[in-house]
Structures are given as structure tokens and as C-alpha cells.
TrEMBL record:
<protein>
    <submittedName>
        <fullName>Nucleotidyltransferase domain-containing protein</fullName>
    </submittedName>
</protein>
<dbReference type="InterPro" id="IPR002934">
    <property type="entry name" value="Polymerase_NTP_transf_dom"/>
</dbReference>
<feature type="domain" description="Polymerase nucleotidyl transferase">
    <location>
        <begin position="30"/>
        <end position="67"/>
    </location>
</feature>
<dbReference type="Pfam" id="PF01909">
    <property type="entry name" value="NTP_transf_2"/>
</dbReference>
<dbReference type="InterPro" id="IPR043519">
    <property type="entry name" value="NT_sf"/>
</dbReference>
Amino acid sequence: MGIRVEGEPPYPTTQAELDKYCNRFIQTLQKYLRDRLISVHLCGSWARGEANPPVSDVDLMVVIDKIDEQISGALQKVWQEVNMGCANVVDLPEIAAAPTELMAMMSDCHVVLLGTNPFPSPTKERYAQNLADVASTMGLYARSREYYHWETNERKLRLLKELNTKYMLKWALRNLVAIRTGTIPVTYADLKRQLLGTEEGCLLHWAENVTDSDYTTAESQLEISSRFSLFAQRWLEESSSVRKNGLNKRT
């Protein structure tokens, strides 16, 4: 679920509503941006076929030629007229710079609703970088639970629970599968199937069954943080190996 703000228009709850929502947005974009509009993409849970309405928001990305004063004014008119929620707006220079967060979003599965796809195909090295980024964060979170005696228990619990989310564990595992196979799993069912019989598959099964009561004692908290820390270190080593091999091939 995306972060909702007060007064934000409601999101679609059915495929028919989604189609109408996207079509209205695209038509309004074309009206004000004309040939400066490059493409429109549907990302996130709706693109993966895993939306859970009304909880799920709609992740849309708009690509334009270049953000400038004219475009900014046109986009203000789009939102005033269309009365819809959020969408990410990027331009071609930003895509060329390939920031990690943007490329991660696009490699996570997207559907081109309009135009041609300006994003380069993700590589194993890109997946390895994604894995390294999230594994590093996971390791830091886990170690803070193990070492920092002065942190409040409330903060320790929050960081520990954040490890077991789609933004941490599942994102790490999806990129791990991608660097091993060359293709990122689109759905959660795909992820579980490709991890079947592996240590990470066992980790995912265990993580699915962790309950709030498992966080209640210092011993269980330490066990959970130690397990995440161990896997995060393994993934950092594997991602480093993939990136090193890719560098050697280019030199």
C-alpha cells in the first residue's frame, strides 16, 4: 500500500475501474503534453496481477522528453482536470542517469500503456546492485538489534519487523532469483516456486509464519535478527561476485 495523504482521490477497486482511470489520465496527458509525452507505464501490484483493492494504490509512471517550466505548467493542468491520485513523472535525461530507485521500480515489472519503452533491459549486474542495496540495509537493521543496547525496544521491534516485508526480504529474494536466472519473478507465487528446495525458500517459509508473539522475548528477537543478518551477508557476497564478473567481462 502506498502512503496516502489526506484528501487524495480514491483509487480503482476493479480492473474495469483501473482501465477507465488510466485511459482518462492518458487522454488528459495527451491533451496538454502532446508530442512531449514519451510513454506511460503501469507499475506495482496492478501490473503484477497481485493488487488487493481497496488497499492497493495505483503506481503509474509518466515519461516526458524533458522537465521544464512549460511541462510543469502543463502537468499542473492535467492534475487539476483529471482529479486522480499520484503518479511518478520522469524525463529522458533522468532515465539516462539510471538512478537505482527508478531502475528498481521498472525492473520490478511494468506494463507499457502508451508509447514505447525507453528503459534499458535490466541486467544481472543491475539486479545484483539492487540486491546489494537492500541486503546492506537489512544487515544494518539486524545488527542494530543485536548490538545497540541503548536503543528503545519499540525502535528495535520496528526495525526487526521491517526486515520481513515486501520492501526488504521479498525484494531481496526477487533480485537474488534474478541474478541466478536472469529473470526477476513477477508474482509472489513465481518467487516461491523458484525458491523451492533452496535455503532461501526455507527462509521465506519461516518468515511467512513469524507472528507478533515471536517478537516478545529478547532471545527470539536475537534469533530473528541473527538469521536475517546471516542471509544478508551471504547475499552481499553473491551480489559482489556477480558485479565483479560483469566488470571483468567489460575490461
